């Protein structure tokens, strides 16, 4: 194998510089730990941004992918494949929806939701309903449609005109939604927890109120569960915690435990708007990704991982809150649901510096929003592993890196 220096040299020569990776190269993983090419071990408490729900190299997932690769990896959607059908049925059963569209990512799932929302009203004869209402600080993806829904201007810069008909209101402000959603609105897009926006859970009553508002105004309610789905909040979908039934839900990230996949879930009468030829995906629902997702779903059940995620989430957020209370000059509080949690850094504390200091102590996390350190560990994480990460965080925040100037 090439040395770390050689690999970093090749990356510098050939990879686009659209990321800010530190100078280390990850080469393998097991459970909640990763190793780099120098042999150093890291505790993974971000799971590839809420993706590796079973951790790394989980035997059930490895076995499923290996067996499927030896049988059938890809077949285009000109034909059904058995794994795609089985997965669609499982997702429908667990979510309560009727219809499933399989794709490759959260961005694609949200793009499909955008298209379906507009076409649904068009198919019903209401061609004026094309507007979409989303929220500030949201994140819905990187394609031109999904980035237009994203309520962070930094993601728009330099890409020309955004998709027309999209507007944003403050997250959690139901009255702002009430003022904006009208007879031209195709759908309101919302996250039950704003992940990239800073791990912001929806205020009490917000999702229920938006459901009632969309029904009243004839708009669809679309919920982006890319980060919160697949048991991360202690339920299969976060909306199930409050009994809300959106018209469309999108999932991705953790669905196949690291194999790329996404899905749109919807009702029978809404899904009918996408007739043959109106939307598709070459790789969507391929047997390999579907087999991986089925293995993840089985393991969620066998390990009772959703209940475990809720229990470990309480342990984690309580630990973060204790640290914030102990070091008020470093952090102002903690928040989150299940195993999607964050600690809010105080003004003047450098988030990138905190991440670097944690990495130097062998703990990997990520940043969300301007000053939140986000924890989204594998759902198999133990209390001892969380305590290891919390101890490292406390050591860093006892004397945190400060912003320059």
Description:
- With 405 residues, the protein is α/β, with parallel strands linked by helices.
- It folds into two domains: 4-57 and 304-397, Aspartate Aminotransferase, domain 1 (Alpha-Beta Complex); 72-302, Aspartate Aminotransferase, domain 2 (3-Layer(aba) Sandwich).
- Helix content is 37%, strand content 18%.
- It has a seven-stranded mixed β-sheet, with helices on both faces.
- Helix 3 packs antiparallel against helix 10.
- The longest helix is centred in the C-terminal third of the chain and has 22 residues, at 305-326.
- The mean pLDDT is 97.
Assembly of the depicted chains: single chain
SSE class = alpha/beta
Written as H for each helix and E for each strand, in order along the chain, the element string is: HEEEHHHEHEHEHEEEHEEEHHHEEHEEEH
Sum up the overall morphology in one term: globular
Portion in helices? 25-40%
DSSP strand count: 17
- Looking at the structure, the CATH topology of the largest domain is Aspartate Aminotransferase, domain 2
CA(first)-CA(last) distance: 43 Å
Q: Which architecture of the largest domain per CATH?
A: 3-Layer(aba) Sandwich
Largest sheet: 7 strands, mixed
Number of domains: 2
Strand content: 15-25%
Task: Provide tags for this entry.
single chain; 405 residues; alpha/beta; Aspartate Aminotransferase, domain 1; Aspartate Aminotransferase, domain 2; 2 domains; seven-stranded mixed β-sheet; four-stranded mixed β-sheet; 17 strands; 37% helix; globular
Question: In a nutshell, what does this entry contain?
Answer:
The protein has 405 residues and is of the alpha/beta class.
